[in-house]
């Protein structure tokens, strides 16, 4: 059941009711951060990538992953970060209530690329839960849904890329780099080639996610280089627009 807590704005002192959203774990169970009822909401004065994420562990399988940090906006214009409980707080609380917090002793193993090993992956499409998208209203929403989609595909350790792309926002995981382009113009040939060169230096695969699509020469070069291209619709659902992306989207249940 979704957890709801009162959140008081530190600026105007209005009180809001906040319900933590749940996101799907790789095992299919819904995962939501544990909210701290006794904590104090803090206003967001400037954005730092590391502060926009919080580590949450799945109660079903014990996996830990980075999820969007809970936030709520006040009508006075202040955006607040909702306090969450850290891992030790959750463990102590579970011990006090007698809940079992022991992780699954047999989580999906990973191969050297950071994706789930083939032998441990489900062998039927029905075993993979559907992807739950995040409605895109801002550039951060586009990054969030891309990070969730990469994790859903089987990539682990999704984070901000070390190298900043010429346009958009770079993400990286074990064995892959991805570019999220929230621009209002289609991604260009140069954008695609720069991503490919970055992936080459990292000895990794690469994927491109765009809100407004791609130019014809960008799509042609991506096909030549084997780069999967996705378009993010406003519902937050990544849709493949070339053959490499279609092949990847059709095999995410088997995470090679």
From TrEMBL:
Residues 94-130 have a biased composition (Low complexity). Residues 94-131 are annotated as: Disordered. This is Restriction endonuclease type IV Mrr domain-containing protein.
């Amino acid at each position: 059941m979704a957890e709801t807590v009162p959140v008081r704005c530190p600026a105007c002192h209005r009180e809001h009711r906040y319900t933590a959203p749940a996101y799907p774990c790789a095992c299919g169970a819904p995962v939501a951060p544990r909210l701290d009822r006794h904590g104090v909401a803090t206003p967001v004065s400037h954005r730092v990538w590391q502060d926009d994420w919080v580590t949450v562990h799945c109660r079903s399988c014990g996996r830990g992953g980075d999820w969007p940090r809970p936030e709520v906006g006040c009508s006075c214009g202040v955006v607040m970060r909702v306090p969450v409980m850290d891992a030790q707080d959750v463990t102590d609380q579970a011990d006090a209530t007698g809940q079992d917090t022991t992780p699954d002793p047999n989580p999906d193993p990973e191969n050297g690329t950071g994706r789930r090993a083939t032998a441990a992956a489900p062998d039927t499409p029905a075993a993979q839960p559907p992807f739950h998208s995040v409605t895109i209203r801002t550039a951060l929403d586009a990054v969030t849904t891309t990070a969730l989609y990469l994790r859903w595909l089987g990539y682990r350790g999704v984070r901000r890329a070390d190298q900043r792309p010429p346009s958009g926002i770079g993400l990286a995981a074990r064995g892959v780099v991805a570019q999220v382009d929230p621009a209002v113009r289609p991604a260009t040939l140069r954008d695609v080639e720069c991503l490919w060169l970055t992936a080459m230096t990292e000895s990794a695969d690469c994927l491109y996610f765009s809100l407004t699509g791609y130019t014809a020469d960008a799509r042609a070069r991506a096909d030549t280089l084997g780069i999967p291209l996705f378009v993010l619709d406003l519902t937050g659902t990544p849709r493949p627009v070339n053959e490499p992306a279609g092949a990847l989207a059709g095999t995410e249940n088997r995470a090679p």
